[in-house]
Amino acid sequence: MPDVALLKDPPLIAGNKTAADVTRDVARALEGKPTATWLVGLLISGTALLIGLVAISYQIATGIGTWGLNRTVGWAFDITNFVFWIGIGHAGTLISAILFLLRQRWRTSVNRAAEAMTLFAVMCAGLFPIIHMGRPWLAFWMLPYPNDRGPLWVNFRSPLVWDFFAISTYFTISAVFWYMGLLPDLATLRDRATGFRRTQLRWLSLGWNGSYRTWHRYETVYLLLAALATPLVVSVHSIVSMDFATAVLPGWHATVFPPYFVAGAIFSGMAMVLTLMLVARKTMHLEEYITPRHIDVMCKLVITTSGIVGLAYGTEFFIAFYSANPYEQFTFMNRALGPLAWAYWVMVSCNVLIPQLLWFKAVRRRVLTVFVISIFVNIGMWFERFVIIVTSLERSFLPSSWATYAPTIVEVATLLGSFGLFFTMFLLFCRFVPVIAIAEVKGVLAQGHADTPAREVAQRFGAAGLGSPEGLLHRDPRVEA
């Protein structure tokens, strides 16, 4: 029998929706004409993407001498953007896999978009190591393909190779997991479509028929993929952090980096989920599916990870001074008081101070305020990666090798292009794919209604032969619609 206390929570889905209402509301955005807001957004993001493509083409034709790098600062904007985008994708895996294993039902309204965000962020991240190779047309050399080079292999001690395997593994698992979750919704759309669109959806839904056997196998595979994807939340960004932690450079050589980077990735990813979903909530009229309860829970995750990131900042300073290593001490004093101190304090303000406002329930209930805070977090997390990378390289062991770094217009245009790619892909996703997981939302329609007696809910589950609230997912979405 469902937990009676659980039924007294605020409803996960507002408006006393029926299963048919869910299908109709989500499919409306896909079956109608694109709105003016969507077209304007696509125009802006497409322009940014075009600028980025021009900048990347120029870099490939000219070489990475178009960047502002020098003999001292060999990594800067490119690796900053790479780490930033990899981190953005972590919230999708957290919401779709880990929270699924923990049976957090509130995830059903945001997991589809978060998973898509993961794929698009990893695509953006993959651009920068390829460009940084200098000869991107030889990127296939890192693939383990049959060749005639004998014992000559890539240098497996190179962070570039680590990043390649991290990106490819993360993208593959995330794509399969995302597509698997789409199957029942594609079948729902198939049964509503006509003509060529119906033929397309029939092929994409892989013959889904909504039978009990189909649902049983689907949930089994989905559970296994969730278990397989969960270690990626820790492993991928841990590998990325080792790009720095394995170096002997002051400010990088720290064992705190793997958990520090993982917490920061979840922090920035949740902020980006809030940024995108709050906009989608307003423009696509999804207020009854992404309710204040969803926003409140995501805000609590942001404030939790903000505290972890703040603790990591303090731990770095403590270890630097406790170690009595003058190089480490200077590095951290240089971060806070040196030439790039402004960037450091932007980072601290956006990542530690501003999110403290989310402690107040009144702030979490103000959608516009939460949106602004999420923007600040995104800015702060980009500056975190920039500060870690550039400050340690500009001022290392020998004062004679010190140098300053300033990005060129080509680097800024490439960053702008990556944002253009991300938002263009997300807008296309919103137009052609269900933003809300239709089948999963139907499974929580009765969840959280205080006016629904526990006995009635239990009888409803029992009549369906399902035995538990989770069993609602066994229902055929076509029948429900």
How many structural domains can be distinguished in the coordinates?
1
CATH architecture annotation name: Up-down Bundle
Low-confidence parts lasting 5 or more residues at pLDDT below 50?
A: 1-7, 448-481
Structural class: mainly alpha
Distance between the termini: 26 Å
- In the CATH hierarchy, what is the superfamily? Formate dehydrogenase/DMSO reductase domain
Label the overall shape.
globular
H/E element sequence: HHHHHHHHHHHHHHHHHH
Tell me the strand percentage band: under 5%
Per DSSP E runs of 2 or more residues, the count of β-strands stands at 0
What is the name of the CATH class? Mainly Alpha
Portion in helices: 55-70%
Counted by DSSP, the helix tally is: 18
Radius of gyration: 24 Å
Summarize the main sheet: none
The chain-level mean pLDDT equals 84
Structural descriptors:
disordered N terminus, 481 residues, Formate dehydrogenase/DMSO reductase fold, single chain, mainly alpha, globular, disordered C terminus
